[in-house]
Amino acid sequence: MTTATLSRWNRFRESFLWYSFKRDKVAIVSSIVLLLMVFAAVFAPLFAPTDPYDLAQIDIMNSELPPVGMSGADAAFPLGTDAQGRDMLSTILYGTRVSLLIGFGAVVLQAALGILFGLLAGYLGGRVDSILMRIADVQLSFSTLMVAIIVGAVFKASFGNLMFGEIAIYMLIFIIGVAEWPQIARTVRASVLAEKKKEYVDAAKVMGFRTNRIMFRHILPNTLSPIFVIATVQIANAIISEAALSFLGLGMPETQPSLGSLIKSGFDYIQSGSWWITLIPGLVLVVLVLVINLLGDWLRDVMNPRLYKG
Amino acid sequence: MKSDTPLLEVKNLDVRFAVRGGDLTALRGISFSLDKGERLGLVGESGAGKSVAAFSILNLIARPGYIAGGQILFEGEDLAAMSERELRKIRGNRIAMIFQDPMMTLNPVLSIGTQMVEAIKAHRRIGTKAAREIAVGKLRKVQIPSPEKRLDQYPHELSGGMRQRVIIAIALLLDPEIIVADEPTTALDVTIQAEIMALLLDLCEQENVALMLITHDLGVVSQVTQRMLVMYSGRIIEQGPTREIINDAQHPYTQGLINALPQMGEPGARLFQIPGSMPSLKNVPSGCPFHPRCDFATDQCRQTMPEYVRSGNVDVACYEVSNLIEQEKRMQEAGS
Amino acid sequence: MLAFLVQRISQAVLVMFVISVIAFAIQDGLGDPLQEMVGMSVSMEEREALREELGLNDSMVVQYLRFAGNALQGDLGNSYFYGKPTLEVIAEHLPATLELVIGASLIIMFLSVPIGVYAAIRPQAWLAKFFMGVSTVGISIPVFLTAIVLIQIYSIGVTIEWFPEDTGWGRWLNGAFTTEGGLPSYGRGDELTHLFGTWYSGFFSTDGLMHLVLPCVSLASIMLPLFIRLIRAEMMEVLQSDYIRYARAKGLSSMRINFLHALKNTMLPVITVGGVQVGVMVAYTILTETVFQWPGVGLMFLEAITRSDIPLIVAYLMVVGLIFVITNTLVDLVYGLVNPTVKLTGKKA
Predict the structure, then answer these.
(1) Radius of gyration of chain B (CA)
(2) Structural domain tally of chain A?
(3) What ranges in C199-296 are assigned the alpha helix state H?
(4) How far is C253 from chain B (nearest CA, A)?
(5) Residue A85 buriedness (CB in 10 A; 0-12 / 13-18 / 19+)
(6) Is the predicted pLDDT of residue C302 greater than 80, yes or no?
(7) Can you give the pTM of this predicted structure?
(8) ∠ at Cα A78 (A75, A82), nearest 5°?
(9) Nearest to residue C233, comparing CAs of C277, C260, C282, C273?
């Protein structure tokens, strides 16, 4: 067991991926920043000075305190407080956690849908292919954000505010996952079409393997690297989509804030001069999305897969 | 027959490609000359550097390629050292080029007329109307039916053969001194290859244009050129009068190429093949690049690059040949 | 040409049919017209009679056909909140959104083409690298955040006191980073010019233009990096092609090669993507209008959601769907006209 993992580690260290990673400063810095953010978010309860979900810890007298370094700041709240007197550092840590959870969950869902439909479309071809890709085309031409907003609006209207707030995380994962599946499906389809032409697929057919075995055991592993690349970028997109939905009031409620809902609740106070309530979570969101995008760019350059263009 | 200074003289040309982890040498020590109205063939397998040689004559090597040394003297002026501005006056005007694939050569979104007129206007102060007349005249010369109509058509509306005719017409537009034709018929249907080649040769002869014909087809070169160069792995390994080389090739590689030609009148005869394949630029063998495929290779061949020796009117870079020549000389001396 | 037209239009009709089915499903699933009409105080029998009268007991297909028939006649019901036909409400809000989109599109067009082309021609230049870096960062900033930052800097103003006020350079730096603000960040202003019908325009007064600046820049900021990257990538690919090399072999000037031979081939795919991006832009107008309280259809839609104004939501979907379908069809047609290799038979030659 240990020797197996060890040799795998050694193989990884000798791989091209690791080699080009070591040479790319942007990739190194991005992944360090990302790892730190993920770590801080996952263990938010350990790092956060207060629990923003716990109303007992909040004192309205502390509301709208500026970050340390400005006049009127309180050292207990290094990034200041929001309008309800919640510690910004804590809400941001918890908010990043929610944003990452939704981003990751949505990508898992869209990858599942995208891989399934992409494989079906690419492998079966014909009518199945044209119907699935037509749907994907229409959905993409409407833009995934638009689809997400509409689905979110319908859900909110049918569940009502309160109910929607309680199950918001699952709803958002569902909405974003469903809205964005065409991206991955197209990529999978493109690589399946390319793989299908190769000899090993013919060989598998000749040997009499069943269709789904050929698809999942033979073709799928060979399409993984483009899926991996696009999934990375899609996490960033999902986080932005979540933030947009939350900003529109179709996402996480203020009691259980994501980065998007933090920005939204802070926006109401920007005119009164309390810029930090909205801009600090905004900065965190941008950095998070940027490092994921930079890693995605790097992966795309290194793995150089056939991605669906446009 | 030969004038004192040739029209084009390439001296010791080196072309390299700057890639990560050092330069790759694409052309090494290329030297040859081209006289007015002469027809010169350049043969070699794909990857030998023929196209790079063709493009370097116009100093048109795409990045990351660059000319690392040597001269390209056109009427005594060095194209390798010229500014882009001066080069532009020569390109298309005095030295024209014909590319390999007519499907890819013409811009798909511009009409034939636009692409012909712009070439004339780039070099002559002339109105559009007059330029169109010149274009029509040249299209007529390459035997394109209803040339006036063609000017308003787009490349995709013409067949491959028609497009290559248009490209020949464009090459002739400004009455150049040299046409460099890089595999002008390879991409065409076999049935029209001969037709297009005959047309090109006729026109060059009529207008007294020197033609540099780049091809992998030794048969064509042997029929239509007066002199030829054989390239292997970025080097010229043999050059001289075509007739002499075809009748009595010196370099083992050239001999192999000639033996590989299907012989007429011998049905069922087995085709000869040179064993192995051309090395890639990334790992050119030491010494003579041909030695791994050569039956006569010695340790000397493996270590150092042979210099050119003269045999008759032919220059060859091969130790086997130079050894034979020296042996002959010694025998003659011993005999006398 | 005719076959191409017929094919594209039948496709558009099919998509519109699907949208109308979705819209109908939403209306049917969420809206209860009785609730709105009569409230709670009506007996079950009366309700049932009303249901019968309104045709709510008919089969789904009949109800859909009635919905679609009304829609075709321009009747998408009345808005609960505004108490007048939904299409009228949308017509009142649409010009504001269109002006926002027009302004942003102008910014995108005038900046993305020169920057994209420059970055493709001189990929190694530091300015090109700078533009590409800014684009990468730009893609990662959500549109509402750009809007908020712009409001902070240009509307509210920023006072910077990071550098020592008692030194000359400190004062200068503080001054350089301090902004006055003052640009409007709320609504369209009062000085709108009436053009025709429901169209009141902000393009013809200083105040109207001032109100347009921040929303348009915000909306443009999200698409601009995308277009710059797209144009650069396409152009670089085109510059590698044989016909560009051939153009150089003809002795053409690099101006003509870059801006005629290469750019024309570059813009063809850009047009297609641009058409698709119109859809994305409509989604972003919802965000932009929310931030700037811009009285367009995006803000109207969002308010309709909070007010559960189902007919207005449905009407918005139908109208936006129609706009998408029309622009996509138009883009296809324009592409066919610009690109000589598409013979308008629907297939690429």
Answers:
(1) 21
(2) 1
(3) 206-239, 242-249, 254-256, 263-292
(4) 7
(5) middle
(6) yes
(7) 0.82
(8) 110
(9) C273
Contact A296, A225 (CB under 8 A): no
Kindly tell me whether chain A and chain B come into contact, counting contact as 3+ Cβ pairs under 8 Å.
Answer: no
CATH number at residue A279: 1.10.3720.10
| Residue A97 within a domain | yes
**Rounded to whole angstroms, how far apart are CA atoms B279 and B277?**
6
| pLDDT per position as a tens digit, A56-65 | 666 666 677 7
CB C81 within 8 A of CB C311: no
If one counts every other C-beta atom within 10 angstroms of the C-beta of residue C44, the result is 7
Say if CB C302 and CB C294 are below 8 A apart: no
**Does the domain formed by C2-30+76-338 have CATH 1.10.3720.10?**
yes
- Which of A36-40, A95-99, B83-87, B272-276 is least confident? B272-276
Dihedrals phi, psi of B246, to nearest 5 degrees: -65, -40
Which position has the higher pLDDT, A70 or A166? A166
The amino acid sitting at B173 is: L
Whether residue A109 lies inside any domain: the answer is yes
Q: Which of B107, B152, B163, B180 to mutate to test the interface with C (most CBs of C within 10 A)?
A: B107
Interface contact B91-C341, CB threshold 8 A: no
Please state, in angstroms and rounded to a whole number, the distance separating the CA atoms of residues C339 and C349: 11
User: Confidence class of residue C163 from pLDDT cuts 50, 70 and 90?
Assistant: confident
Cβ burial, residue C130 (10 Å; 0-12/13-18/19+)? exposed
Geometric angle at alpha carbon C313, from C307 and C314, rounded to 5°: 145
Joined tokens for residue A8: 């795998």
**Nearest residue of B to residue C246 by CA position?**
B105
How far A188 CA lies from chain C's nearest CA (Å)?
Answer: 21
Looking at the domain assignment, is residue A127 inside a domain?
Answer: yes
Residue A38 lies in a domain: no
Question: CA C238, C240, C244: angle at the middle one, nearest 5?
Answer: 75
